[in-house]
Amino acid sequence: MGLKKLTSIIFHQFFIFIKFPKYSSLPAMVYGLRSMVIVGLRSMVWRTIVYSLSSMVLFSCNSDYTPKPRGYFQIHFPKKQYQFFNQAGYPYSFEYPVYAKVVKDSSFYGKAINIDFPEFNGRIYVSYKEIGKNKLDKLVNDAFTMTNKHTIKAYSIEDSPISNPNNVHGIFFKVGGDVATANQFFLTDSTTHFLRGALYFDAAPNEDSLSIVNRFLIEDVKHLINTFKWKE
Question: Which of 66, 141, 170, 224 might form a disulfide with 187, Cβ 3.0–4.6 angstroms?
């Protein structure tokens, strides 16, 4: 509608309002114009807000901001030094770190022990069973079964053969993912002795946050395996 025509209509309605107020539509027109002005103002405000938000999004997309990687507490590791475990009543011996301590596991009957790492809230659970009283095939199968229990959260399970010059053989398991224990193993002489070990942490399973400690302690686990001996 043109401005000239709109002016003419308003003037005409004003004339009718003066002469015949009952029949005039001027109040309705004024109210309508008021509503149009309010709607127009609201529309301008919303357009301004949308434009501002769009500019912010575009600026964010085109900026050089790079999110920082997740950080963890810095850990100071002790020097690698080892001591000898050769207690009476246990049919095996090995070397373990000076920053660890061996504790008899009273929750298991027999020759079970725990190797605790207090600085890292870590523990190697070590259980021992005698072949003869237990079938070797079942012991080996149980070791694989206990490792495979972690397949729900694990994205990989690698097993590597173990062998040292002291008639010690077995399998080492490395489990990838947010699992309770990422490093497990069993050792045997195939005729008399069978031992199983698993490294746990007293913390929520998180592969990223535990990886640096795992790498440090896995060297100690391998040293234990390489120095492991059966007693005659």
Answer: 170
